[in-house]
Amino acid sequence: MPLKSSSAGLRAAPAALDEGELRGLVRSRPLPAHVAVIMDGNGRWATGRGLPRIAGHREGVKTAHAVVRAAGEIGLDYLTLYAFSTENWNRPEDEVSMLMRLLEEAIVRELPQLMEQNVRVRPIGRMRGVPSGVRRGIERMAAETAENTGLTLLVAFNYGGRDELLDAVRTLAGQVQAGKLAPEDITEAHVSRALYTDGIPDPDLLIRTSGEMRISNFLLWQIAYTELWITPTLWPDFSAVDLYRAVADYQGRARRFGGT
Ligand code: FPP
């Protein structure tokens, strides 16, 4: 009988395994097509060490690099990273500007490796309102990797789930107003197609680091039936092993999508 949720059998086994063994284990089972990650805890990682918060973000970029590589190594099709939310603009001005610089530098530095790893980058979020340097970097990264055929990396930048739904409602309202769509004909598929994630399967697994038990306005429509995996580990301490543990745990669950 399949395990109902993240229960003993499959969770206990991976704890004793090293990275290579875990990778082999998750690759031998059906993989989630899409894993989404709320990367949280950079600030706490830094302040816990008496360092400025930006030091945590710098480590966070290194973790993102390792996780993208690890996702590619097990053959995931889609990985979404929540890099900057619409609410993150409310942080102190100096943290926001340092974070923008850090992300801009990371884009330039990571591009050759993303090409080498055959990763296709697709930004999701509202590009208007993003400082021009970062926006250009993101657009360049998306354009240059567009023909790659490996992992699709969705980078959620200036992303808000409610904004995304608002934009979708406006798109559909426009189609109704133009006489192209009747309100009673609107289906879930119309909504999905009007989202930033058009054409991307909904996440099978959502990982959140740093132990917070919330969704933080992330992929609100898309995570209706997504499995959750929350770890107390702070994002800078998260590793390939943690990603593989989360996937192994997911593989031990029976998804019922509201059925029995
Ligand atoms: C989370 O920690 C930090 C963010 C969401 C900001 C940006 C993320 C990174 C720099 C990671 C790298 C991402 C990419 C795509 C290169 P927090 O500041 O919310 O931590 P706290 O909750 O401990 O304050």
The fraction of residues assigned to DSSP E strands is: 5-15%
Tell me the series of helices and strands, N- to C-terminal.
Answer: HHEHHEHEHEHHEEH
Q: Give the tally of β-strands.
A: 6
Adjacency order of strands in the biggest sheet: 3-4-2-1-5-6
Integer average pLDDT: 94
Structural class: alpha/beta
- Poorly predicted segments: 1-10
Q: What is the helix fraction of residues, given as a range?
A: 40-55%
Number of helices: 9
Q: List the ligand species.
A: farnesyl diphosphate
Instruction: State the separation between the terminal residues, measured CA to CA.
Output: 13 Å
What composes the largest sheet? Answer: 6 strands, parallel
Supply Rg. Answer: 19 Å
Anisotropy-based shape: globular
Folded structure, characterized:
By secondary structure, the protein is of the alpha/beta class. The protein contains nine helices and six strands, in the order ααβααβαβαβααββα. The protein has helices at 8-15, 19-27, 42-47, 53-74, 93-116, 132-145, 161-177, 188-194, 240-251; strands spanning 34-38, 78-85, 120-124, 152-159, 205-208, 227-230. Strand 3, helix 6 and strand 4 form a beta-alpha-beta unit. Mean pLDDT is 94; it is low at 1-10. Bound molecules: farnesyl diphosphate. Farnesyl diphosphate binds next to helix 3, helix 4, strand 2 and helix 5.
